[in-house]
């Protein structure tokens, strides 16, 4: 028992990294198929990530993990019930309206600026520019996912490329591999959702 406890204490970062990566692949499988079960999985992952990101100094990601949990609850509800409906209906996959895209850009820019300022001034982050950029984009992308907009995949591609590099740089290799795979799967996911949106 003592040997097991010692092993867990010594390798807990790697174990959490691996577990988070495994859940991430499960989440991505559900997202690819537009399956609402992605939301329960996305509520479990932040519990792991909150601890892991704080320990490795990715403070924006740490804060984002809290946001992800709350957004997952919203996404689960949004995918189950259409706003204004008299009965439960499945939210359809649609394309992002130009008006909503402009609004999203207007929200993204100040969020990015605020995160960059916080990381630069109030933390010892060594990657404030990219960390804040990836997380500001993630806020927008997760909301787009909750509303089932096809273009959410395009935003995630940018996020995944940035985070893949950051995690490798910060010594979280399993998450780096995970986000590298996300880039490839997001390309396929975008194509699949675009086809599904046409039929919706």
Automatic annotation (TrEMBL):
Subcellular location(s) per record: Cell membrane
Keyword line: Cell membrane, Membrane, Transmembrane, Transmembrane helix, Transport
MF terms (GO), sorted A to Z: nicotinamide riboside transmembrane transporter activity
Membrane topology, from the record: Multi-pass membrane protein
One GO cellular component, as annotated: plasma membrane
TM segment ranges: 12-30, 60-79, 100-119, 125-146, 153-170, 176-193
Acetylation in keyword set: no
Keyword Membrane: yes
Protein task: Required for nicotinamide riboside transport across the inner membrane.
Similarity remark: Belongs to the nicotinamide ribonucleoside (NR) uptake permease (TC 4.B.1) family.
Record-given protein name: Nicotinamide riboside transporter PnuC
Species assigned in the record: Alloprevotella tannerae ATCC 51259
Gene behind this protein: pnuC
